[in-house]
Amino acid sequence: MLAIDAAAHSSPWRRVHPAVKGTLFGGLLACALVLPVWPGAALSALAALAVGFGPARVPPRAFARAAWVPLLFVLTGAVTMLVSVGGPDAVLAWAPDGWRRAAEVAGRAAAALCCQLMFAFSTPLADLLPRLARLGLPTALVETVALTYRMLFVLLDTARRIRTAQAGRLGYQTRAAWVRSLGVLGAAVFVRSFERARRMRRGLECRGYEGELTVLVDTPPVRPAALLAAALPPLSVAAAALHPGMWP
């Protein structure tokens, strides 16, 4: 199981209705994207981190492992805004207002990433998908995502087993052996994924599949007080960001 899924299933917020968590982190995400970067995006990120590391008890180490690659991608994209190509003075030159645009893009993206990861670390996808179908999302799309999500763990376990067997046979001792073993690993996982998909389709047909999978989901009640409490942090961030003269 992936670290995000393991943390989501063991989170103390597992029993909290996804609508409540969606109101909280979705509202903070909207603040990060709509409000000014300073202080809107900064306050949204701080609020999401405070709630995630506090009541939701998201493991900081797992969060750091999940966030560093997207953050590196964000920073790499922001660096390109510091230069301009094909200007009148030089082919490559510093952009006049590049640092401001780079900081805005990086700030918004980092804040949005924090909000999304905190929601993912506290809400298992298996609890979210059936409710998306009830909200009107096409059933075929929801079931495709669910089956792909479940198959992902099977394929990851298959790849891990094959790689362990290859390593036991010294398949990664040299660079040439590493490349050859990696190619064999990819080919084996590709073939087995098609075989498992064929068997899954046949199993669904034998069970009378007619276009919809019936799944029982534990539905805790949505309390208006919980929704109101979840909306308070985004509203507070919006009020603090839009209050004139409060921030430099």
Automatic annotation (TrEMBL):
Keyword Ubl conjugation (UniProt): no
Superkingdom, natural source: Bacteria
Presence of the UniProt keyword Membrane in the record: yes
Compartments, record wording: Cell membrane
Keywords linked to the UniProt accession: Cell membrane, Membrane, Transmembrane, Transmembrane helix
InterPro entries attached to this UniProt entry: ABC/ECF_trnsptr_transmembrane, Cobalt_transport_CbiQ, ECF_CbiQ
One term under GO cellular component: ATP-binding cassette (ABC) transporter complex
Chain segments annotated as transmembrane: 24-54, 66-85, 135-156, 176-194
PANTHER family attached to this UniProt entry: COBALT TRANSPORT PROTEIN CBIQ
Protein name: Cobalt ECF transporter T component CbiQ
Organism: Marinitenerispora sediminis
